[in-house]
Design brief:
Shape: rod-shaped
Strand content: under 5%
Number of helices: 1
Keywords: Coiled coil
Number of strands: 2
Structural class: mainly alpha
Length: 182
């Protein structure tokens, strides 16, 4: 038995795998009528043909109904598969949107880091320039200091010579004074 919402209650499935409509046997050729009795009804060939057509139409309708039920079942399965694929696609779309948002955040962070790196590079260049200026000043001051030291050393030697000469003169003066006092 096979359930189908389009067909109604349970519809028996034919034993064969195909849903070919069972064909009723054609009406028997009219044989000589049996004598009619009160209890027996005479079947006329037109009624037999109509009866045959009715059974043929019922079998055909049953076949069409079963085919429709199969088509509906296949369509429902396809619909379920499409809904599953749609759900997967929506999930992928959501994941893609999240990834896109994260990528945008990373791009923004990257730009911020680039800006900070440029600022740090400018500060480093400025600091190097200041250091070079200070080194130049220091070298100049060291040169000035060395020159002053040489001048001071020369002056000191000169003063020492003068002092030495004055000390001699003083000794000579002391000697001469002491000689005059005797």
């Amino acid at each position: 038995m096979k359930a189908s919402s389009a067909v109604g209650p349970l519809t028996p499935t034919p034993p064969s795998t195909s849903h070919a409509a069972p064909q009723p046997s054609p009406p028997k050729a009219h044989t000589s009528p049996t004598p009619a009795t009160d209890a027996q009804v005479e079947v006329i060939p037109e009624q037999q043909a109509l009866h045959y057509e009715l059974h043929k139409n019922i079998a055909l309708q049953c076949h069409v109904t079963l085919n429709q039920a199969d088509k509906i079942h296949v369509a429902k399965e396809k619909n379920a598969e499409l809904e599953r694929q749609l759900a997967e696609a929506q999930g992928a779309s959501s994941s893609l949107a999240t990834a896109s948002s994260e990528l945008e955040n990373l791009r923004s962070s990257y730009k911020d880091l680039e800006t900070k790196l440029m600022e740090a590079e400018q500060k480093r260049e400025h600091a190097e320039k200041q250091l070079a200026e200070k080194n130049s000043e220091l070298i100049k001051k060291e040169g000035d200091f060395a020159m002053k030291r040489k001048v001071d050393s020369d002056t000191l030697q000169k003063l020492q010579k003068e002092n030495s000469g004055l000390i001699r003169l003083q000794r000579i003066d002391n000697f001469l004074c002491s000689m005059l006092h005797y």
